[in-house]
Every structure is written in C-alpha cells, then in structure tokens.
Task: structure prediction
Amino acid sequence: MGKNNTGSKKKPVVAVSDEQFKAAAAQRVKNILPILKKTYPDAKVALKFANAFELLIATILSAQCTDVRVNIVTKEVFKKYKTAADWANADVKEIEQDIRSTGFYHNKAANIKNASREILERFGGKIPETIDELITLPGVGRKTANVVIGGAFGKPAITCDTHVIRLSRRLQLSKNSDAVKLEFDLAEIIPKKDWMPLSNCLIFHGRNICIARRPDCPNCPIARYCPAANKPEQW
Ligand code: SF4
Result:
C-alpha cells in the first residue's frame, strides 16, 4: 500500500537545452508577431512628442506614471520649455511644480535639468543617437534610451517595460525577468527589423488583453501559441 494504484504514470520530464528553448522562442515570435500586428495596427509609442528631445523628457516623466497623464503635462510644459537650454536654465523648483502631477517630481525635475545641461555641454544641445551615450545622462536607463532610439530615431530598439517583461515570461521568450538580461535575450532571437514592432505590440497586448492580474486568455488572439494560456499564474 501507499503507492497509487490508479495506473496513471507521471510524464517523464524532458530537459530542454538553451538552444532548443531559444529556437522555440524564435519560432513563437514568428507565429505571434503577424497576429499582433494585425490586432494592433496602430501600436507605437503612446507618448506625444515633436522631436527626440521631447520624447526623452516625456519618457523620464513616464516613470511610475501613465502615458495619458504625461501627455496632459507635456502639452503644457513643451510650450514653456522648448530647448535643452530652457530646461537647463530653469529653476528646479519651478520645473517641479510644472511636472508635479506625474509623481516623483523632485527626482524627475533634477534629472531633466541635469540631463539637459549635459546635453548642452557634452553633446552640443543635440540628443545623442546611441544607447551607450544616452545612458550616461542623469535619469536615463536602457529602457528610456531604447524608447528614444526606437521612437524618435526609428532605429532598432527593444523597450523592456513592465508589459514586455511580463508577456515575455508568459510567452516563454526568455527565462529572465531582469530588464537588461531580457533585452539581450530578445535581441538574440528576434531579427532587428522586428525589435520595435514586437516591443510596441507586446505593450499594447499587455495593456488590453494580457493584463497583469486578469489576462483574458479566452479572447486572446495568440492563445494557441502561448505556453501560459489559461494558466498565466504559473509564469
Ligand atoms: S493566452 Fe493568456 S497568458 Fe498567453 S498571451 Fe494571451 S492573454 Fe496572455
């Protein structure tokens, strides 16, 4: 006694090599991207901007804040501060009041002012066009740099925000949750031309269907390719 006599057998655990995991992930992207592009034909950076500098400022403001709120704030502040010099020379207390409703306004105001000053002093007032240069600016991490590179300069970029991280786990595109490791994992398995489209589509899908707490798997157009379909809590 003590043994289960129902006759059911446990399935043997099949080890998957890293190479097999990556090949399966790459194939999954090939399957889901056309569907996501069709589902979200307007998927692009939701922040409103007229140039690379404005997108940089808007992205710094978007930390812990909705794009909708940022767009409301930038509609006004971009009329007042038009250049890097305008931000660099402004009183930080005044910037704080102007961006207050985006939250964390002490840090954001200091970062925007200091980044603007460095853009003036080190880059001649122009936004640098490489990630390595952008991340040397105060308050600019890889995510912000990628948003600017992809959104303003139209160069290949992977933006690992909270949606991209969550969906990449559920879709088993990477085993990593760390944004930087995940970015490099995705870059390895996805053709460069698809970096931005996939990032934007995953963000839209994460906002609309594959939301954090209650993903709508029954109505998900990519469910047949998703290892987490109907059991997202496992990922
Ligand atoms: S099937 Fe569910 S878990 Fe998978 S992508 Fe769709 S909504 Fe997300």
